[in-house]
Structures
1.
Amino acid sequence: MAFIPGGTFVMGSDDEQARPDEQPLHTVQIADFWMDSTEVTNRDFLAFTEATGYTTTAEKDFSYTLPDGTQVQQKAGSLVFSVPANDHAGVADWWQFVEGANWRHPQGPGSDIEGKEDFPVVHISWYDAVAYARWCGKRLPTEAEWEYAARSGKAGMRYPWGNEPVTEGKIKCNSWNGRFPYQNTATDGYTRSAPVKQYPANAAGLYDMGAMCGNGAATGMASIFMRLAKKILT
Ligand SMILES: [Ca+2]
């Protein structure tokens, strides 16, 4: 874990790339805390499931109700990113619900995590993340803590590494290279997720803080990359 000294910072952004929900800018005070320097890996999560017998949300059958009241029984699964044929496809075409997709089978039946012990665990729900965190004696970081740690004391910075666009200079993170969502040139070496610590850490000693969006796009929105925090007890 990396120690993140507390302080105040301006949360949010009015940059041209900022989303409406990142505004208005506001000052936030953060207490000292520790944060995992990488995402939770498959190795980490396997230790948890072996110790506890925990079953993730994506491994459980579920049911839902349609607007007309019809009850639908659904086999367990999760959303997997699927490359559409062209850029005219909508968001709904990028994602497919794949029965049998879960953290042990990231692309569904026939895929596995063998040799991917150092990859971030994926297809993890909020409930799974909280259960894992409790088992570790940690908790999920708040959004403010995340942003404060990603900025690592550098006010107004656009990305965890500075302001240089992801497409310029050295490769800084695992992102989508080429034309999203139908052409992935993988010039950073990975079409989907990458093992942790493949790219330089930020000034706070945290790896892959800028890879969330890119990895999220490449591996699926249902793939939450857990990074856990621990409060300093005073
Ligand atoms: Ca990539």
Note: The beta strands are 2-4, 7-11, 26-30, 33-35, 62-65, 71-74, 77-81, 95-99, 229-231.
2.
Amino acid sequence: MYNNNNRNRRDNYNGNNRNNRNNRNNDGPFRKRNYQVKSFTKIHKETDVSNYPEILENGKLRVIPLGGVEYIGINTMCVEYGNDMIIIDMGFGFPKDKSNGIDYAIPNYSYVKENLQKLRGVIITHGHMDHIGAIPYVYKELGSPIIFAGKLSSELIREKAREFALEDDLRLQEVTSVTKYNLGVFEISYFRVNHNIPDSMGVIIRTPVGTIVHTGDFKFDLTPYREPVTEFAKIADIGAEGVLLLCSDSTNSCKMGWSDSESSVTPDLTKLVNEAKGRVITVTFSTLITRMAQIVEIAHAAGRKVVMTGRSIESTVRIAKELGLIKVPMEAFVSKEDARYTPDEELLIMATGSQGEENAALNRMVTGNHNDFDIQTGDTVILSSSFIPGNENKINDVIGKLAKKGAIVYHSQMMDVHATGHACSEDHKMLIHLCKPKFLMPVHGDYVALLGQKTTAIKVGMPAENVILTENGTTLDFDANTYQMAGKVDANQVLVDGFMMGDITPEILADRQKLGNEGIVVIVVGSNDIYIVSRGFIEVNENQTHIDAIKSIAKAKIEQGNEQVSQAVSQYIAEKIGRDPIVITVRR
Ligand SMILES: [Zn+2]
Ligand SMILES: [Zn+2]
């Protein structure tokens, strides 16, 4: 599952008012983006790519996770044999280092680009952004490959492509869990899984060397909400036939027991909505389509009209409604205008911002910066989402603000208002028993999560040496019985900021970090005088002694005809104040 809310910030960027973007309403009109796509640049140099992979030997099967292991998000994997190559999922994520204002990180497809004549197609497991989000950024550079995706995933990809004005280039082939086709030597088929977005599928790839099973994101849910259960029989059949490699979702591998069913949240959600006296505000990720379907249906049954706020929620609910995944009449919804005249006890507001994101609807409502809604005494707010590690402070901050405004807040730590979408340890054990793979490669997780799945696999009898913990970019070359880590391809993330990607160098990142941590001093040298301007460093008016000293150092250097004004000032600041701002000299 991937939190898509941060995307809104960019969706509202109108190209000339960047400073105000945090104040913008997410619900603004749709704007096409015009990305200026630069070529790939190596961003992080810590990975040694000098150990370039051996040429793929005849008769060997190469698997390369280009993203999705070591850290969360950016799920993508490359499979290659002879003259054929396929990609499974093309997700984006947040950069693994401190973000420094970087919007997204996407996979590095340099290796694929070098072998573009081999690329036969892209297989999408489900419609979450950590599995489809990179498509618009790299699609044309990869020669507009044919994409195979389920119905809902296809719609979500189309929606993304429209945003990027790519819909004319898009080659999409809709598939279901019974579709079978060949891509070069690869025979592709599917098995349905449960997750928290409908239409999630695992992929079976039969190759001349052996069969790969890729789960996508999954959990085993025996009582899924309004969708069919995982196709266990297909997994068992392929297990009986023989599986060379299982690539399996590790996100929740450190959670013991079975994953909770999506239906397990229905009773508590229903009770809260039915018993609320005033308005109900539900907050969830726009990507949890199954949850949103539940909420809309519960609200409708309780006689409440649903109003949505947050562009991502509006578009996903519209698509889900069009595809019949949300089963209520159109009258179940109300526009924001009409919501103002709907009695409190007949209204449910569906909003984004479950992680306390500054720019999402919930935070804007509670801080009075929302165009349509605020928080009032008697509101019932339900956070139907997880507390993603690292976001706890922001979430607690929002809960505190809600409480001060008189709202009653329920969240997943108090009641069953959220169920995870990812397999836990017992799900993994069952999968391994059904699938009986020779090798297991945990994917979709940081190293702790990958290791968690390895531990589980060993518990159910897999030899430790057959569980492959790998890194992004490592090439694994298989024959029918063994594999070799044959080398490394460039898998350094490509960073996307604003309308450009791949241009953020390590130097720019270092400058951003230094500006944020130490501030900036500008020495403006005029014909008769020197001015000092500073931001984020010291208050100029209250530190006249230092400012005078800086001026006289600069003056002396200039009189000596010495160009190194900034260096001399930096040295003074380091010695006398113990700080290290960026210092630049400007001559007027
Ligand atoms: Zn995912
Ligand atoms: Zn997912």
Note: Residues 1-50 have pLDDT under 50 and may be disordered.
3.
Amino acid sequence: MTSLSEHVLEEIRELPARYPQPRSAVMPALDLAQEEVGYLTAEAMTEVAAALNLDPGYVEGVATFYTLFHLQPIGKHRFYVCTNLTCTLRGANEIVEHVKGAIGVHEPGELSKDGFFSYEEVECLGACEYAPVMRLDHRYEKDLTPEKIDALISERRSPAAAPAHAPLPSPLPEGERVKPKPKPRPRKRKSG
Ligand code: FES
């Protein structure tokens, strides 16, 4: 049994032609897989590797390195809040705190009780002039305020909310993806 649909696999197979280094296609490919399945299962990663003719260990290494990729179930609606310099200077930390309080979670990746929401902190989204900025359901939300966050959450909780994956505008050039923050590496203990 496969976890990815044939049309997503086809999209993934076409990705390497868009990059000078075909291996660079691994991140958008994992993004597509995660979008379809909800998170990256071992099976989905194996299928991505096969579709790109890459070593499965390499694909898994990329998936486990970046916080943008999830190996466990995550919220249907995910806040990717930019906490890079410009956004931080314009209140990104307060936005993160507000998101956490509003959806009732304590840390990145934690699922809200209703299973609807989770959040991540990410690197620059390429829209610094609109800081603070985040991505939610593939849409860029700019000039964020607590009131905007509350309105976005209410929209998604209401039955009339916009679909999660509506093709909405992004300030990034076509094909460019969010730069995720690498997961922190364990610190080496000092000997002696
Ligand atoms: S620093 Fe946040 S979009 Fe650039």
Note: The chain has a mean pLDDT of 85.
4.
Amino acid sequence: MSREHRDAIIVGAGFAGLYALHRLRDDLGLRATALEAGGGVGGTWYWNRYPGARCDVESLDYQYSFSDELLHEWQWTERYPAQEEILRYLQHVAERFDLLRDISLDTRVTSAVLDEASTRWTVRTDTGEELTARFLIMATGCLSVPKAPEVPGADTFAGTVHHTGRWPHEGVDFTGKRVVVIGTGSSGVQAIPEIAEQAAEVTVFQRTPNFIAPAWNGPLDPETARALGVPESFARPRIARGRGALRALLLDAADDVPLREQLGRLAVRMSHRAPHLLWLAIVAAPAQRAVAVGGPLLRRGAVAVVQLQPGAVDRVGRRDVDAPPAEVAP
Ligand SMILES: Cc1cc2nc3c(=O)[nH]c(=O)nc-3n(C[C@H](O)[C@H](O)[C@H](O)COP(=O)(O)OP(=O)(O)OC[C@H]3O[C@@H](n4cnc5c(N)ncnc54)[C@H](O)[C@@H]3O)c2cc1C
């Protein structure tokens, strides 16, 4: 077993880990190493490759601001970037700042023990390394461990099961398949329209309806991106004000039952006029608890194959998934 000493060890190579490595090594001059369980950098955007995975924060905001050069040279192609584009961006950052030479991929930290007398951490990994360091930075994210639903019988299911947080790198072909999706949070809302494009039948189990505000995504005109992306106008007060107002409205709505119900009714009315806004109606029953911003719209052709089942899944059989009957207000 090798045993090496560093000034700092960083666990994780997502947005936080990459930046921490850059700051500690290149600005503070520390000997730093990042240890990453995944086979590549990117964190959230390395693991979450489900169809439709996309950021619900605008690309010009969802990027680093520590380097003017980076801000100038990277061109986002869409207002709300897809997983693949964010992953490409983070790979670019890792290469551009020569971070990869100090990142060990496919290396999971299994223990970290502090010796209080010497104020040294001893960090062990599943690859058999043992490192010591004065500083240990856990850039492990808050959503990097997938949680499977604890439903009786789930382990007996005879079909194929996928979790959005550990999607196969080669993708999944749903052509002609009957698919059940459990959950209509951000990931479910993004994945369902894409799965419905291929599948023969999609049944969506929804325990808790959320509001979904359409993202109005689209290509990012290079002129606009250049103008908005330059560091001197990074604050973009006009856009920030608009976004602030939307956020305030949605956050207010989360605690304000009458307002929530009003928004819900509005969404249902809109979806009658424009069937491709079905998602708004699906998620806007007046019992919402949370608010999710963003999400694509269900395209016309896919509406027919999607069925909504209100209620939590309470049992999984060998061949099917079931929920108790539930009442949902129209
Ligand atoms: C599906 C999904 C969609 C999201 N969408 C948005 C969005 O639209 N807007 C937004 O602002 N935020 C979004 N987030 C939140 C997103 O996680 C953060 O924006 C950001 O990417 C977190 O970066 P991070 O570096 O802190 O953590 P992560 O990106 O989670 O990176 C942590 C890394 O630590 C590694 N790791 C964990 N434990 C160990 C260990 N023991 N040993 C070695 N490595 C380990 C993991 O493999 C992972 O690569 C989303 C999250 C998810 C899961």
Note: DSSP finds ten helices and 13 strands in the chain.
